[in-house]
Each structure stands twice: as structure tokens, then as C-alpha cells.
Write a structure and sequence with these properties.
This protein is α+β, with helices and mostly antiparallel strands and 529 residues long. It is built from 18 helices and 24 strands. Helices cover 39% and strands 20% of the residues. The chain is globular and about 65 Å long.
Length: 529
């Protein structure tokens, strides 16, 4: 009898790492999670300690092996799917020079504007690249490091993102994977760094690591890494990919023109394609986890985070009630008591600004048309619907601007477990919505499939069609189309009517908060963004 073999797959998010032991048929045998903190030294800054990532990797790996009793000799690969846009400077002695400046960090606004001016301004830059860049983007943050921390920048042999750092800790190899690199300055056609662009901006190309594909075996676990993880030295470690790309593979939406939605803390609409169109309206084209494909992504900054906010602010009493076992199930029950459209109350879900369908880090959320007749339940439903309006806007951009018809949307992430929310999304987008059996594990499953292709167990990523199971299907309800179309048009008009107001008030707010933060000497302050 052949001994079963397994992949250790890690989904390294913003607040935690999720490790899974996955067999070669895509079955998740065990998983474990480990949290780590985020530090906010100043307004719009967000950092993490890189060593905490590796400690979480080692701890969760040991736990899933211990839970199952699997022999380390039966584990034939390790792979990481990670948050992108992180910057971790490493010196020639392999020492970390600075905390990870993570994707949430928006400190480099001035550098983003400076970069766009070098190309003729925001409008010209957006026409060339597809979207404006912000202080959260990788090139801008590297330029910030050069201009504001020159000692660190000059001492830095190279920078790594979260995925590259974990590969380095596992194998001692300093590399950058294609899909992660496409968030920094990656030529999708040449499969190389955009050397002329990066040099023109003023960044040192020698500090950009060697590129690898997701399916490439970068190296084997070092003795030190193997001991920390409870695995065998030499266990193959693969290039892996970014979290968006692994989620897309794990959704099973891997064919030409296949669309999916992710609903976690943030959210996005993605389309898989072999083409490499220039982005627009905040939609960007990234390298897919499949080296032969690309991924069009329209990302909204907050999706599930909006529900989390409502839960924490409006349902504090219920969360402390021992008789209420599932607060989200209660919230689902409550929105059933409100008719579609929330009695013409609209919520815009832009808690931290927005990337797509509008690129605006200054915009914020609003409850519009609130009256004395509205109850808590109306506000709750308006939040669910507001996220769905935003998703519809992104879907329509992908359909009208890029000619991708998406009659079916595969939804993954924790948000897809909400039955009422899925029906709302089906109704507002007027599309069939499908959910999976284990929607929160799509990222770990997608990363595991990358390793199996890298090992030659499967010839290509079509295997995802065999290994991903649809659990439920939601069809749009015709009786809700009219009210949702009417409110959707109003939703879109709110941004254009209020964007100057948002900018005026929030620029003043940021200046005040900046003055307050610079008065503090506590470098581990947790000032919220």
C-alpha cells in the first residue's frame, strides 16, 4: 500500500497565519492558526515584526503535524501564500533592518505623487499603467525608504516581501515570486522587473531580488528551519504566490474569463485571463499564480471589515450574551426582517478609503438618507447591500471596459458563509452566485495546488476543476431588480457628489492626527489608521 503524501500550505494574512495539511486530492486533513500584531507608529503607518511571521509558520506547522500524526517523511512540499506589498529590508549579513512596512501602510503619499509627476501627472500615469498609485504601493514605499531612511536604504542588500522573507527563512534563498512582484513593478510580457521604469524612478535595481515562478522549487528546508518546523531537512519549498492569486486558484475559477469574488476583511472581484490588458478605473492586471495566466483584480479596501464594524458597534450586548452562539447568524436573521433596499437607506463601505471602483484613499463611509423610521436592522442591511453595490460596480467595469462577461460569480472567503449576503449579492449583481464547501480555505488550497503542479503530480492548474466542490448556488430574484437598480445608480452618484467634501474634511483630520502623533515619543503606539 502506498503511503499518503501531503503538502504543508500556509496562508499568511494581515493578522494571522493559517497552516493546512493538504493531501494530493485537495483534502484538508488539519489546519491551525496563529495570530500576530500590527503596530501603528504614526497615522497611516502600519508595520509588523517579520520574525513573528516565521514563528507563526514554525508553530502552526508543528501543530498540524502533531494533530494528524503524519510522518515528516510523508510531507513532500511546503508553500506560502501571503499578503503582498510588504517591504522588509535585509542587509548583507542577512539581518532585518526595519519592521515590515505592510500593505495597509500609506505613508508614501508624497512619493507616489512624485513618481506620477515624473510620468506627466496622475492622468497620464493612469493612462499608461491603468491606475494611479497611492502611498500604499510598493514603488512609492521603496522611494520613501530611500528618502526618509537613507542609512537603512543604503545598507540594504535587497528587500523582500512577506513571501520572499518566509522563503528566505525556510531555504536561505533571497528571491521574489512573479505574482508578488507584479504588485511592485513587473513586466507581464517579459516576465522581468520593469528595469527602465524602476531606474527612472530612482530605485537601485541591484536591490531587487532574483525572480522565480510560483511552481519553482526554490530550495529545501535548511537544518535550522526543519528543526523549527518539525520537518525533514531538504523538504522542497516552492515559490508560492500572493494571497489574491492563491485564492483565485482555490476558487476553481482558473479558466479564460472565469470570475470570482473574495469576501474577507477586504474584498475583490477577479478575472483569470491569458491576456495582459492595461488596467483602468482602479482595476489592475497582476501575474496569476498560474505562470501562464494573468489576473485582473478590482480590489475594495473593506468588505467583511464593514460587517465587523457593525457587529462591534451595534451588537456589543448580544456578543456578551452566552445564549447567542453565533452573532453573524443573528445578524442574518435580523436583515431578513427588512425589505430589499433597506427602505432607501444607503451605506458606502469605504472605511479606509478605496482602490476600486474608485481610487481614493481619502474617501470614507457614509449612511445616506437616514431617517427616524430607520432602525438598527435597516442600517445593518444597508451595510450588506453597500458592499454588494460596490462589487457590482467593479463587475460592470470588468464587463464594459475589459469585455469579460461573468454570468457566474464564484464567491470565497469567510463572507461567503452568509446565506443572506450571498442572496443580496446575487440580486444586486443580477448574476448567479456559487459558494464552496470550505470557502475560508481557498487560499491554502490554492497554494497547495501550486506545490502539486511544481512537483509534477498534476500537469497544470486544470486540476482545480476536479478538486474544488461547489456547495450552494444562488439565483437573482427578479422581484428585487427594480429597487436595487434604482438604489445602485444613487450609490454611484454619491461618490461624485461628495468626493470634494470627503477630501476637505479628511485632509484636515489627517493633519490634526499627524500633529498629535508626532507629539508622542511612543514608537509602539497603536494610533488607528
Amino acid at each position: 500500500m502506498t503511503t499518503p503524501q501531503y503538502i504543508i500550505s500556509h496562508d499568511v494574512g494581515t493578522s494571522s497565519n493559517k497552516a493546512a495539511l493538504v493531501d494530493l486530492d485537495g483534502n484538508i486533513k488539519a489546519y491551525d492558526t496563529e495570530n500576530y500584531p500590527i503596530f501603528y507608529p504614526q497615522v497611516n503607518w502600519a508595520e509588523q515584526e517579520p520574525c513573528y511571521y516565521w514563528e507563526a509558520i514554525a508553530k502552526t506547522t508543528r501543530h498540524v503535524v502533531e494533530k494528524t500524526g503524519v510522518s515528516p517523511s510523508d510531507i513532500i512540499g511546503m508553500v506560502f501564500s501571503t499578503q503582498v506589498l510588504g517591504i522588509i529590508p535585509i542587509d548583507r549579513n542577512d539581518e532585518v533592518l526595519h519592521r515590515a512596512i505592510i500593505w495597509m501602510d500609506g505613508r508614501a503619499t508624497k512619493q507616489a505623487e512624485k513618481i506620477m509627476r515624473k510620468f506627466g501627472g496622475r492622468q497620464v500615469f493612469a493612462a499608461l499603467v491603468g491606475t494611479c498609485i497611492t502611498g500604499k504601493d510598493g514603488m512609492a514605499k521603496l522611494l520613501w525608504l530611500k528618502e526618509n531612511e537613507p542609512e537603512i536604504y543604503n545598507k540594504m542588500e535587497c528587500f523582500l516581501d512577506v513571501n520572499g522573507y518566509l522563503i528566505f527563512r525556510a531555504t536561505a534563498q533571497k528571491v521574489f515570486e512573479w505574482s508578488c512582484a507584479s504588485a511592485f513593478g513587473f513586466d507581464l510580457k517579459k516576465k522581468d522587473w520593469m528595469r527602465m521604469v524602476l531606474n527612472y524612478i530612482g530605485l537601485d535595481l541591484n536591490k531587487f531580488p532574483r525572480l522565480v515562478r510560483s511552481i519553482d522549487k526554490v530550495g529545501g528546508l535548511t537544518f535550522e528551519a526543519a528543526e523549527a518546523c518539525g520537518l525533514l531537512p531538504g523538504t522542497p519549498v516552492f515559490g508560492g504566490c500572493g494571497d489574491m492569486q492563491s485564492a483565485a486558484i482555490g476558487s476553481g475559477a482558473i479558466g479564460e474569463g472565469d470570475g470570482h469574488i473574495y469576501l474577507g476583511t477586504s474584498g475583490w472581484v477577479g478575472v483569470t485571463t491569458s491576456k495582459a490588458p492595461t488596467g483602468s478605473h482602479g482595476v489592475v492586471t497582476l501575474q496569476s499564480g498560474d505562470p501562464n495566466m494573468n489576473l485582473l483584480i478590482g480590489e475594495m479596501e473593506t468588505a467583511g471589515a464593514c460587517l465587523e464594524w457593525v457587529k462591534n458597534e451595534f451588537y456589543k450586548h448580544e456578543q456578551n450574551d452566552p445564549n447567542i452562539l453565533n452573532i453573524y447568524a443573528l445578524m442574518d436573521d435580523e436583515i431578513r426582517s427588512v425589505s430589499p433596499g433597506a427602505d432607501y437607506l444607503i451605506c458606502t463601505p469605504w472605511l479606509y478609503g478605496e482602490r476600486c471602483p474608485v481610487t481614493d484613499p481619502i474617501v470614507r463611509s457614509t449612511f445616506f438618507n437616514l431617517s427616524a423610521s430607520h432602525r438598527r436592522e435597516h442600517m445593518l442591511r444597508a451595510v450588506y447591500e453597500g458592499v454588494a453595490y460596490n462589487l457590482r460596480w467593479i463587475v460592470e467595469i470588468l464587463e464594459h471596459k475589459f469585455a469579460f462577461s461573468m454570468p457566474v460569480l464564484r464567491v470565497i472567503g469567510g463572507g461567503s458563509k452568509g446565506v443572506e449576503w450571498m442572496q443580496i449579492i446575487a440580486d444586486i449583481t443580477n448574476r448567479q452566485v456559487e459558494t464552496l464547501l470550505q470557502p475560508q480555505m481557498a487560499g491554502t488550497l490554492g497554494a497547495a495546488l501550486i506545490a502539486t503542479v511544481g512537483l509534477g503530480i498534476y500537469p497544470d492548474f486544470k486540476c482545480a476543476n476536479q478538486l474544488v466542490t461547489v456547495d450552494r448556488i444562488f439565483h437573482p430574484q427578479p422581484q428585487n431588480i427594480q429597487v436595487y437598480n434604482e438604489l445602485y445608480n444613487t450609490y454611484k452618484s454619491l461618490y461624485y457628489s461628495l468626493r470634494k467634501v470627503y477630501r476637505n474634511i479628511n485632509c484636515a483630520r489627517v493633519q490634526r492626527l499627524h500633529h498629535q502623533s508626532t507629539d508622542s515619543t511612543d514608537k509602539k503606539s497603536t494610533i488607528p489608521l
